[in-house]
Here is the input.
Amino acid sequence: MRFRGVAIYRFNKDLPEELVSSLPEFIDDVNETVLVKGATSEEASKIVSYEVQDDVLRFGMESGRQVKIHNAVLRLRNHMERSWGAMYRLGIREVSLDDLTVEFDKEYRVSLKLPYIKGIEVENGRTVVHLVRLSERELKRPILDRLLKLFEDKEARTMWGGKIEHWMLLERSRGKRPLYTGDPNKVLEEAGLIKRFSRGQWLYTPMFVALLKSLSDLFVEEIVEPLGFREAMFPKLYPLEVGLKTGHLKGTVNSMLFASFPRSYDIDEFEDVIDLMWVLDTVPVEDLMRKLEPPSSFLCFAQCEPFYQFFSGEIVDDDALPVKWYDRSGPSYRWEAGGLYGIERLVEFHRVEVVWMGGPEQVVEMRNRLLEGYRRFMEEILDIEWRWAWVTPFYLEQAGEVQEKLEPDLDRPGTIDFEVWLPYKGDREDKRAWLEVGNISIHGTKFTKPFRVKHSRGETIWTACSGFGAERWLLAFLSQKGLDPAGWPEKLIARLREHKVPKPLIAVTYPERAEGRETLSWIVEKLTESGLLER
Ligand code: ATP
Ligand code: ZN
Ligand code: MG
Here is the structure.
């Protein structure tokens, strides 16, 4: 990789004759001292030509990857001021780097539409990127370094093509004969236990909530709490900066929902919009938009973001670690476009999000214990057919980071997905018949670094999280066990017997169709027989 460009220094006055005639010597000297410090001579920076015009000095520069050209330009600035400032009363007014090109030894196919890039040429096994002039302020920010990283990441992503995830089966339960093969999504809607509210959103009636909540409660009470995790409450509206740091905005911006604040609190400012609604009885969205600020936040996406933000800038010590919390205080939001279906794929869904933080061994050990907890939950408590897989992406898509990985090493950062077979979707050998219900991830320092979470002795701190998608677990459970409690496991029955299932809503027009009413009375009958229905 080679960088070439012209460093332009504008001084407070014309350069004196004496200085100009000493420039060749000066250049020889800095090429051997200032510009090679901390680098091998090949990869260091070098002045290859110069030109003086009144108060402007131009250096033609070249560099490899060690003292990159932008750092060299700034080093020279300081060195010249130190050497000439007092002697000639010279000061530097302005610095910039012009005609900057970066040459790579291979052909990159990536497309980059960035304000800093003027053009890209690809030929004969080389790629040359031309950049616009960079000001001193821009030279001081790591724009060039980030640009290079972006280049390599995009290239890696193109290279891996559609292979977004690397799926490797780790373990699966024995085959279990399902008690049911219908589609619970349809039954739940038809019987009126859930009602469509808006795109990917449903209203859950009390009868449905009893089931949904019981399953998550069981998970929390049987697995999460006994492992020492304690409940916290995380906000559900996140400032954009948080998403920039977690990497979600760079990786999954297409599936996030955004929120705007009003420009003014003064209701009079909205008068015209309000008048329009009175007269037209529609919402004039274009006019409304002008009254709102651009989005400054996004709605809860991964649910663990506030955890990292909480510890941002904090110094922790061994006494504080590990931190083990969970949050189940509100919904997550995702745009899934054409993928939305029933309670399987929602815009608004609910999750128990378990998060922990500690030294690498602590984090791995906790992950292993939670993993065993999940096994017990699936195997002993629910008795469903499951499998889990190592799905660490070849490149970590969400953060836009390249991380090649061919062998699973479970003690390193990575993700394990839990999947459950949905008999209504097909044969167990068909991979489309399996649904991801949850996962467990070790992040390493992916979040503690950008959020600057420090240990008092400078030791490495890792984080990890696990998302238990409530709707997905319930759907997976019902898909294999059906809606007759006679086939449900003891622990769930015991819980429902204690908390009882509320009676369903039956009205003149609800559930809408005769089949739905029939299904509902069958459900009521079965719940009553099992002694689970509230009287
Ligand atoms: P998928 O591959 O099915 O889209 P994901 O990889 O996007 O899932 P994660 O980002 O890992 O899911 O989210 C963690 C958990 O949140 C999932 O295991 C699932 O239980 C739940 N979840 C994610 N997206 C949805 C959704 N649109 N509707 C319902 N639950 C969801
Ligand atoms: Zn998480
Ligand atoms: Mg998804």
